[in-house]
Design brief:
Radius of gyration of chain A: 24 Å
Number of helices of chain A: 18
Shape of chain B: elongated
Oligomer: heterodimer
Order of helices and strands of chain B: EEHEHE
Strand content of chain B: 15-25%
Strand content of chain A: 5-15%
Mean pLDDT of chain B: 93
């Protein structure tokens, strides 16, 4: 709403946005962040999806309309001020460890857990792991439209508890979310999506990521701190903070970074995700996508590939459910399957690879038309016929080929949009599915650039061998 | 950094703001006829709200004309980027005095 309102005002046309009560705080915070602090807003009292038609008409006529008329008829004094902000190397605070924690909590620059104090010495240690200029701008991130620089990556990397040598991964992660295709601008939407980072390449072993049992649990520094870094970076540099610009209704905590099990892939003879996405085998890659739901643990058993795949279909259907309608509205969604090596080996034993699994899912994941059309009543207050989405051009024609509400329709939009990652406990036949939030946070991948002396420096890192 | 004394000199974790704040345009100076457009994200019952709002604005500003949301496209759909990029041109083309934008919920 406010993006369009600002565009109108910038084009010389007065605008007023209709916002429901529960979103007023976010609207004002977003308006300030976007540089239109005095935006005209007409409040719709209450919650739109749950009002009767009469209640809606009464509120529009008696509350919203007078506010619109007033907003368009009254000049308000401007509240625009120009804040002076620190330079990168300025000391902004000096204190004990406890005082630093309190200061950062007070400023809302922390995720609520203790941070490592970002001192110049530590930030410089991170910068030593990249050949890029500290002030290079990787992107400008909404909603506060601040510059994401190599420097700010290092600062937040320190705070999140990363090691300096993670810097090449952190830079690629930020490049991914700064890509316009990622649509970071919608990261404060009500589904409350989180980020999932996938790391693929020999950097996984070099940085000691966990790719096996419990790989998505906290406990290994590379997985945990890089996952935490992204949440902290988005909070501090983009400006998404829960209760303000972040309107995730319930949400969940950040995901630790997922790393592909290169040894298991080699054994299978399958291509790693980076090659699926067009990168070279020798490349290191980061992929980032949104996550709004995680399936139950899926056990894949049986002695033929269709039986092995059956639980993936059922849990895909069950986890996404009628939310697939939203994917049709935005013409995009990217499910991701984490599959343990033993499941992949079983598929491979029957001659199936990732392509066959993806095709099976595409052909068999179905939902009835009625469930999808009805779902929009709960989201927005009114059912929407699939035919309307076809008319808008966001859904393929096949969704309107019949009026039978019981007809079964494909849930997945494209075979190649399902990512399969080999990771997890090699000793158990388990998979899990991560559902992304349609075109908000589709999978975006970036090559990880390494500093010139990377291999020698990584080799010199002393690490205790794991038991 | 004075870590040996248990003190830390810390730097700022944010980035330089690039956003230039804009002031609002002047509001209506009278109750004469206006040309008002509607922008919609195709969700949250805008199709029920806009006719009521249009009727009310027509009463308040007699002789006003209105441009429906369909003239601009979906401001939050699969082609949002294209719609928003083209919006300044479309608004000027329609010679609007104001727009009503819905619906944030």
């Amino acid at each position: 709403m406010l993006r369009a309102t600002k565009i109108a005002e910038a084009a010389g046309v007065p605008g007023v946005a209709i916002i429901s009560s529960g979103f007023m705080q976010q609207a004002h915070a977003t308006a300030r962040a976007m540089g239109i602090p005095d935006a005209s807003i007409a409040e719709y009292p209450g919650m739109i999806p749950m009002d009767t038609d009469d209640q809606l008409a009464d509120k529009i006529w008696n509350k919203v309309l007078p506010s619109i008329v007033s907003s368009l008829s009254t000049d308000m004094p401007s509240t625009i001020t120009q804040a002076v902000e620190p330079a990168p190397r300025d000391t902004i605070f000096s204190g004990t460890l406890a005082e630093v924690q309190e200061y950062f909590l007070d400023k809302e620059w922390s995720d609520g857990l203790p941070i490592a104090p970002p001192t110049l010495e530590l930030v410089d240690a991170f910068l030593a792991w990249t050949d890029r200029d500290a002030q290079e701008v990787l992107g400008v991130l909404p909603p506060e439209f601040r510059e994401a620089t190599v420097w700010s990556v290092a600062v937040n990397g320190v705070m999140a508890g990363c090691r300096p040598e993670y810097m090449p991964v952190l830079l690629a992660v930020v490049e991914a979310i700064a890509d316009p295709d990622f649509r970071l601008v919608d990261a404060g939407s009500t589904p409350g999506w989180e980020y999932l980072i996938l790391v693929s390449g020999n950097i996984v072993a070099a940085l000691d990521f966990n790719t096996e049992a419990g790989n998505m649990k906290m406990g290994r520094q590379a997985n945990a701190s890089i996952g935490r870094f992204l949440r902290m970076f988005v909070r501090n540099v983009a400006g998404f903070r829960p209760g303000g610009t972040d309107k995730g209704s319930i949400g969940f905590t950040f995901n630790v970074a997922l790393a592909e099990n290169e040894a298991a892939i080699d054994k299978l003879g399958w291509a790693p995700v980076r090659e699926d996405l067009g990168f070279k085998p020798a490349d290191n890659m980061v992929m980032v996508q949104s996550v709004i739901a995680l399936s139950m643990p899926i056990y894949n058993g049986g002695t033929d590939p269709e039986t092995l795949a059956w639980p993936l279909v059922r849990f895909m259907e069950g986890t996404a459910g009628p939310y697939a309608f939203t994917a049709l509205v935005f013409s995009r969604w990217h499910p991701l399957i984490v599959m343990s090596p033993s499941v992949a080996e079983a598929f491979a034993g029957h001659g199936w690879g990732k392509r066959e699994i993806r095709k099976y899912l595409f052909d068999n994941c179905k939902i009835d038309a009625r469930s999808m059309e009805h779902y929009q009543l709960h989201v927005a207050g009114k059912e929407v016929p699939l035919a309307e989405l076809v008319l808008r051009g966001s859904a393929p024609a096949l969704y309107a080929e019949s009026n039978d509400p019981k007809r079964m329709l494909p849930m997945l939009l494209r075979e190649e949009w399902t990512t399969i990652v080999i990771a997890g406990d090699p000793g158990r036949n388990q998979s899990r599915i991560y559902i992304n939030n349609h075109d908000q946070g589709p999978s975006v991948s970036k090559r990880i650039g390494l500093p010139r002396d990377w291999h020698a420096r990584v080799a010199a890192l002393r690490r205790k061998p794991r038991a | 950094m004075h870590q040996d004394k248990g003190h830390y000199d810390v730097v700022w974790p944010l980035g330089r703001s690039t956003e230039t704040a804009i002031a609002l345009n002047a509001r209506f100076a009278d109750s004469k006829a206006k040309r008002i457009g509607f922008l919609w994200d195709y969700i949250f019952r805008g199709e029920q709200m806009f006719p009521l709002i249009q009727a009310g604005l027509a009463e308040k500003f007699p002789g006003s004309t209105f441009v429906p949301h369909t003239a601009f496209g979906n401001i939050h759909g699969h082609d949002e980027r294209e719609v928003l990029a083209d919006l300044p041109r479309r608004l000027r083309e329609e010679k609007l005095d104001a727009v009503v934008v819905g619906v944030g919920a």
